[in-house]
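ok trying this again, last paste got cut off
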Amino acid sequence: MKQNFLTLKQKTSILLAFLSLFTSFSLITSAYADELSEVNEQITALNAEIDVFNQKLAELNKQAGDIKTEIERLSIEQDKLRKEIELKQAEHDRLVLEIESTKKRISDNNEAIGYAIAQYYYSEENSTIERLASSNSFSAFLDQEVNLSSISDTLMGIVEENKRLEAELNKEKEKAEQVLADLDAQKEQLVAKENEQKQLLAINERNADEVHGMKSQKDEQMSELRRKQQELLAEKYKNSGASIAMTGDPAKGGYPYSGVCPDYQDAYADPWGMYICECVSYAAWKVDQAYGNMPYWGGRGNANQWPANARAAGITVSSVPKAGTVGIDTSGYYGHAVWVEAVSGDGSQVYISQYNAWNAATNYSWGEYSEQWVGAGAFVYIYFGG
């Protein structure tokens, strides 16, 4: 039986072609890895800068809170002083009325005193013998003499008492006026202090606006880098033989937050501590639906943290693909989480569903659902179901 053998020249040509293809793929892979590494470094640096801005904003917010609290305290103190001023004014008005009443009483008493004095001096014009002679009895004479002495003492006492009361009331009036003057001065000081605090608050707000502006610039740069990172990951999947991403299931995998994606992406956390509309939130929901439990990994929710989280929880992590597992691509700053719907017969491909992948099916936007076949080697697999 005649056998066909390749000539040495043919073998050499095939070997050279294979080496050329391998070298070309290696160069592509190396260039991809280098570019992805550069993007990751830029994202790391930007995250550090954004953290600094967040710390500054937290400090400014605390300062603003302290200033606002001080202003509120001053406002309450000012209201209290207003009431005290009203009280002192009422006391002052009462004192004025008492003074006027006392003056009136003194005036009336003076008239009575005048009359009594006239009577007293009229009686004094008569000698004691004449008063005795005109009295019906000696007893009546004695009563008249005692009465004259009593009138004199009483009138003198009233005059002295009125003088004392008027002096005391005048002192109270002066005291009340001084208290009012002191409170007015204190009120002015408080108003000045409040204005000062408001100025500080305005400065604080301006500083916060400046920091917000700088942080927004960094956020925009971060968004662009994340887009670039996703672009590189999409290229990676393409090189691994991935199919074109599709919109797939009209129900978007049944994900309960799909109705608010992507508008509310990262708006709040799901029951497992993941931000909604992110790949990890969708994967966590799929695990919970499939197996009735998903560990709470809030604060350790980046996809590339999941393998370590799983190992620490005693959950199997494998390079062997299996339907009903979570596939984790650890490359990139955050990594990427997918749900493995099916595995090809030879195990070389996995059919995945996912959220927040930057591809044609999602119109190259965030927080959207898509499905596609991807080379199994792109992921490590977490066996939540055992």
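PB: full thing came through this time. DSSP finds five helices and six strands in the chain.
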